[in-house]
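Morning!

This is the sequence you dropped in the shared folder:
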Amino acid sequence: MEKRIEILREKFDSLGVDAIYLTSRTSHRYFTAFDNEDGSLLITKKSAYAFEDFRYIEVATKNLNGTYNVVEPRGKRSAWLGEILANEGVNSLGFEDLSMSVNAYERLKADVNLELVKIGTTINKMREIKTDDEVAKMEKAQIITDMAFEHILGILSTDITENDVAAELEYFMRKNGAEDKSFETISISAEKTSLPHGVPSNTKLKKGFFTMDFGAVVDGYHSDMTRTVCIGKADDEMKKLYNTVLDAQLRALEYLSNGGRNTKEADKVARDIIYKDYKGYFGHSLGHSVGLEVHEMPALSPNYDAVLVPGNVVTVEPGIYIPSKYGTRIEDMVLICENGIKNFTKSPKKLIEI
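The structure's back. Tokens below.
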């Protein structure tokens, strides 16, 4: 954590700040390895402070002392934060504009009465490139996700509901080492598969496509995977749609594996294949970055032109969605390496008929 603090301090001059106040849960965990949704951090040129309320003060003191001055804030923030800022000679304070509401900004402005400087993009850019330790956590999260998929294949039938599947996936992941699910699990059947983010219900699984989009969290780091299977036999039209998505995904992975690094071009590789026969039915981007949040930047998108670098972890998830009929999505999570990629996702991708 000390290294991340020093990297942040090195940016003070270019940002035009004397200190940075971190208030998001994600940043708190990134800079402390300790999760507290209500904690905040102050990084000055010479010191670092962790503000932790009574519920967390004991564990924070045990884990953060030595790196941070752990403070249990009492009374108005203008008093306890203002005193430290004055003692540290802070005249300009960086704040997380990308994760702060207007109301929170106005309250901070009133509490500190200093020049406030937006630094949210700087924090996000720091998190884009994953360390070996971060990568290991994400790889472990994906191993658990793959295990859950293998497990669920053994119990899928028209006798269970979409909610049953979601609950079983989440229970299995928690039982096998996940601290949480990455997001609200998607498990949708038949015509609902045309909804990219459909919500599971107590409806029993129907014959046809069945899509599961889910992931695990390990030490704060997420995995993200989607697989579509078929309950019963797929007809020729379904097979064509599925294999088009699979071809698009494999070609995009091949582009990245062979050194392709442009986010816009990666999306185009997959989109061009899909649009030959299904133009207009692939409405979201090809992928997004993953880390302490399940959706991070950079994105693989027709609207985002950037260059991927080693240490980025991104999803590759093309899909086709025919309204009120059905849809298919296939998603892997990959690490961008110096030469090629490392695909964390091991679950099979050929159409499975159950």
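Headline: The chain has two domains: 2-127, 132-343.

More detail when I'm at my desk.
O.
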